[in-house]
Amino acid sequence: MVVTIIVFVLVFGVVVIAHELGHFLIAKLNGIKVLQFSIGMGPDIIKFTKGETKYVLKLLPIGGACMFEGEDGIYSTNQNGDDQNGQKPEGAFNDANVWSRIATVFAGPFFNLILAFLLSLIVVGFSGETIPTINTLTEGYPAEAAGLREGDIITKIDGDRIYLQGEVTFASALSGGEPMEIEYKRDGKKYTTVITPKFSEQDNRYYLGFTIGETIQCKGLNLIKYSACEVRYWLKATVKSLVMLVQGKLSANDLSGPVGIATMIDETIEVTKPYGLPTVVLNMINFAVLLSVNLGVMNLLPLPALDGGRLLFMLIEVVRGKPVSPDKEGMVHFIGFVALMILMVFVLYNDIARILVH
After folding, report:
1. Which of 32, 91, 126, 222 could join 218 via S-S bond, C-beta 3.0 to 4.6 A?
2. Any catalytic annotation for residue 20?
3. Going from the N-terminus, what domains does the chain have, and what CATH number goes with each?
C-alpha cells in the first residue's frame, strides 16, 4: 500500500505540475505576475519565495493552483490593488490584454496534452504500438459473415480514421448493437463493409467477432506518429465518455476520484509486477498519459471554477468588446467551486463504497 501511495503521488504530482507550469510559463511570457505556484491542497508543508512568486507544496497530493496578481481580487498590496502611493501594482492579470489572458488559462490543459505526448514517446519507444490487424475470426460472428479475413487491417470505423487496436476495441464495446461501417485494407487495397455487432450474454457486451492486434516497433517518424495517435486515442475516449455521461449512458457512479485512481494504480501494479519492474514503470507512465489527457479535457469544460469556465467569460469579452463585471464573474466561479467540492465529496464517497463492496 505504501508503494501505491508513493506511485500515486508521483503520477498525480507530475500531471498537476505540468498543468500549473503551463499557466505559470505563459503568464510570465505575457508579463502577468504570479503570486503563488502551489501543488496539492490543504495545509502547507513546504514553502519558499523566489523573486515575486511564493512556491508551496501542500499536504494532500491532489490539485494545484497558480494565483495571479489581481485575479479574483487577490493583490499583493491592499484589497483594492493600490500600494501606499495609490498606484496599482504592475503585472495584474486583468490588466493584460484578453488574448494574453486566454493564452495563460488555456496553457494549463494544453501542457497536459504536451506531457501526454512526451510520456507516450517513452511508452511507444520501449514497447512498440499495437495496430489493428485481424489475427483470428470467431465462428458464427458477423465479421466472418462479412468476409473479413486474417491479416486485414482496419482503417476506418463509421468514417473515423483508425490507427490503434484500442480504438477498434473501444468502438466495438460502445456500439450498442448499431450497424458499423468498417473500412479495411487487404493486399494494399481498401474495402468497405457493414457489420452489426453480436451481443454476448456471458460478457454483457457486443462483439464484432475477431481478435485484433499486431505489435510493431516504432522509431523515428513512426515513433512521433504513433505517440500522437496514443494521445489522440485517449482524447477521443475521454470526450466520448463525457458525451455518454451527458446522454445518460453513463452515470455519476462511473466517475472516479483520487481514491479510485489510487485503487486502479494498485491493481495495475499487482497485475504487472510478475513481469518485472520495467513493465510496471511503463504501465505507470501509460497511466499518467491517460490521467494527463483526462485532466486537460476536464479543465476545458465550460463550467465555472474550471479553466474552461474562465475561457468562456474571456470569449464573451472578445465578442462584447468589454469584460463581464469582475464581481459577477467572481460570484459565478465561487458557486462553481462550491459545486465542484460537493461533486468531489460525492465521488470520494462512491470510490470508498466501491472499495468496501469489493
Report:
1. 222
2. yes
3. 97-127+220-358 (no CATH), 129-216 (2.30.42.10)
